[in-house]
UniProtKB/TrEMBL annotation:
PANTHER family for this protein: GLUCOKINASE, MURR_RPIR FAMILY TRANSCRIPTIONAL REGULATOR
Listed name of the protein: MurR/RpiR family transcriptional regulator
Pfam families, per database record: HTH_6 (PF01418)
One BP annotation, GO: carbohydrate derivative metabolic process
Top-level taxonomy: Bacteria, Bacillati, Bacillota, Clostridia, Lachnospirales
Every HTH rpiR-type domain range: 1-75
Gene3D superfamilies for this protein: Glucose-6-phosphate isomerase like protein, domain 1 (3.40.50.10490), Winged helix-like DNA-binding domain superfamily/Winged helix DNA-binding domain (1.10.10.10)
GO molecular function per UniProt: carbohydrate derivative binding; DNA binding; DNA-binding transcription factor activity
Superkingdom of source: Bacteria
């Protein structure tokens, strides 16, 4: 395990051990730091940190943080990790299956929380807050998560429109909305399908800022996005369900919505109350017609 390797102090130089001591004392905090921030607080250098990462078998600091977050989530559950693609084993009882899925969701939430880029989420929240119209793009389960996000935005009076990445929704209709402040949210696990890339280019051509929420840190579009929020993608296409990725996407969107809500807390509380009253009135009307 990574933490066991860090505790083998003889493999590190004196300077490297200073960094290792900080990591072992503040593991949760380290998962949220950039390599530059860790170098600053430990009075070391980026190259020293990279050498430590290589010595414990990780590819670099980003990979190191992912592995560290995984171990922290395993410790929190008091047991081993649950495989994301096929979390159950043959012959398990109903109780064991239920426990496996519970542990998988807990494991996933702990990992995504440990790796959250709060600064990027804050910038995304401000961008959505300042926009008159928010376009939401996804396909499959990503689109379902965005539809829930759209429903939440509706509660606080924010206009949004969800669009499937299916090839029938080129961005021509935005021409009539040039006087509106607009932004777009693109949600994709792999962020590599052709329709996503085409929609990204169409949005850029319209000068609409893009928030990319994705699980592909190597994506070529990221540098052109206004905000990039990357999550660890622990699933492959060889899976029997999208248990882990579904939890990740929904959690990130829920955090984003909560940050948007908090920017105008009192006003949004009033919005929610008015929304509830409107729904109640509509329900009374519908029930009256039915009778």
């Amino acid at each position: 395990m990574l933490i066991d390797q860090l505790n083998e102090r003889k493999r590190f130089t004196k300077a490297e051990n200073e960094v290792v001591s900080y990591i072992l004392s503040h593991p949760q905090k380290v998962t949220k730091l950039t390599i530059e921030q860790l170098a600053t607080v430990t009075f070391s250098s980026n190259s020293s940190i990279v050498r430590i990462c290589k010595k414990v078998g990780t590819r670099g600091f980003s990979d190191f943080k992912i592995q560290l977050a995984k171990e922290l989530s395993s410790f929190a559950m008091g047991g081993g990790r649950v495989e994301a693609d096929i979390p159950i084993s043959p012959g398990e009882t109903r109780e064991e299956i239920a426990g496996r899925i519970l542990n998988l969701q807990h494991q996933t939430l702990m990992e995504v929380y440990s790796m959250l880029d709060l600064e990027a989420l804050g910038r995304a929240a401000a961008l959505v807050d300042q926009s008159d119209m928010v376009y939401l793009y996804g396909r499959g389960e990503s689109l379902l998560a965005l539809n829930y996000f759209a429903a939440d935005l509706r509660r606080i009076g924010k206009i949004s429109k969800s669009e499937p990445l299916d090839g029938f929704n080129r961005i021509f209709h935005y021409e009539n909305r040039k006087n509106m402040t607009q932004c777009a949210v693109l949600l994709s696990q792999f962020a590599n399908n052709r329709m996503l890339i085409q929609n990204f280019r169409d949005l850029k051509a319209q000068n609409i800022p893009i928030i990319m929420i994705h699980g592909n840190p190597e994506n070529i579009l990221l540098k052109q996005a206004a905000v990039s929020i990357c999550f660890h993608n622990g699933e492959t296409n060889s899976k029997f369900g999208s248990f882990s990725s579904r939890v990740v996407k929904q959690y990130i969107l829920d955090v984003l919505y909560a940050m948007i809500f908090s920017l105008h807390y009192e006003k949004n509380v009033e919005h929610v109350h008015r929304y509830a009253e409107t729904v109640d009135q509509w329900n009374r009307y519908v029930h009256g017609i039915e009778r």
